[in-house]
Design brief:
Elements (H helix, E strand, L loop, with lengths): L4 E2 L25 H4 L21 H26 L5 H25 L7 H16 L5 H5 L3 E7 L4 E5 L4 E4 L6 H13 L14 E5 L5 E5 L7 E5 L8 H6 L5 H12 L4 E5 L5 H9 L8 E5 L16 E5 L13 H8 L6 E7 L3 H9 L7 E5 L6 H10 L7 H11 L2 E7 L5 E13 L2 E10 L5 E3 L5 H9 L18
Parallel strand pairs: 1-4, 8-12, 8-13, 9-10, 9-11, 11-12
Antiparallel strand pairs: 2-3, 2-7, 3-4, 5-6, 6-7, 13-14, 14-15, 15-16
Helix pairs in contact: 2-3, 2-4, 3-4, 8-14, 10-11, 11-13, 12-13
Length: 491
Amino acid sequence: MNPRWVPPQRDGQQRNDQRNPQRCEPNDALPPTAHGSAFDDGDPANGRRTEGEAADPTVTAAIKADVASRLAEQVAVEEARAGAVLPVERRKEIADELLTGALERWARRELSAGRAVLSGSAEAALRQAVLDGFFGLGGLQPLLDDASIENININGCDEVFVRYADGRRARVGPVAESDAELVELVRQLAARSGVQERRFDLASPTLNLQLPDGSRLFAVMGVSARPGLSIRRHRFRHVTMEELVRIGVIDVVLREFLAAAVRANRNIIIAGGTGVGKTTMLIGLASEIDPGQRLVTIEDAFELGLGSDRVRHPDVVAFQARERNIEGEGEITQADLVRAALRMSPDRVIVGEIRGPEVVAVCNVMSQGNDGSMATIHASSARGVFPKMAAYAAQGAERLSVEATALLVASAVHLVVHLDWASDRRRVVSSIREVIDADGTTVVSNEVFAAGPDRRARPAAPARAETVDRLVEAGFDPDLLTYPAVRGGMS
């Protein structure tokens, strides 16, 4: 069952394929609410633009350029006077004052020439667009400010598609005036991204980074017909197991089982397809970790953000992999970071996503005393995790055989949690496998929770006595597995 597509809603729509792909104009096929009309009702006789009349794109650019030059000068003066870098809030205050002056000057020129000026709402929209360009994320900011939007996919400045949290999809208005402006916006985001240089040009045509709100951005240029972006958003930055019950990902039995598994220091792999909620599940599981434990997180781009929750996770070291520079040097892989993590005295190591030969280092960490470690991996089923890990291990420098990989996985991983889409299009835990042993090339596992008719996990084969004993010591009530009537949160 696919999410319902919400097409453009205006009659007489036409695909705008003949426009210049390097220049993005408003899409007439979109309803005003989709691309945010900047103008209120008005009367041309009183010098106000009427609804639906678009301002010249050069106005925004001209006012932004005017403010930019004056802002740089005033900031330099105040920083020289203070002998320190000016706080962002003060920069915003200066920009707002300068923007007010620039808008007033423009309005006077327009009236003197006998032309209509912007309405109050149009001026407010222009003001916000300019400030977003300086301090926000430009044309992306309104989409990121919409809490109901979950994913944003961009195929050029004017081909913008969003997916909402309830599964609906829609096309929205342009996020930049041209493809060149879109590329420049991405470069600005890369420059602000923090701990390391991130290029975005023909020599480095892909970019992977975390936005200020925690969203994950991947951008591409040069190797695609037009610049493309994909932004994945996490609506639940500090989710708990109780919240996962509330939104229907798990029920109370799964909550108690998985929470006890975390407290019992079980090594857990979280699996599923793209966008099914693996990272959210990982954050929820991590909420059960004792705040006194030291965590090391490893990601190719910061996304987990466990360290931002200083109450639950006050002691976190966050590592991020680094791509090689233009000279082909300086690369630091996730495998390198996993090995380095062992020197940071961690109680647990958490890997944002296994996607290559770092699987060997991850399993080594899990089997060398750092119990309670966790990671995510892309796989279509819980059982499918094991051949996926074997395939990744074969890519590593160790060149492990399938038999050796099976032994390593069986000695490292305790539980595999798989997420899937339920029949009502909710993200749910659909299966949990307990790893038992290895038999030749096969990892032997026991499906203690299996997918029911609606794809939600139900108790299945009994867990081993050793596993149940460990969970009971961590506070789990084994009677929950035999009394389905207590199950909740499945609406």
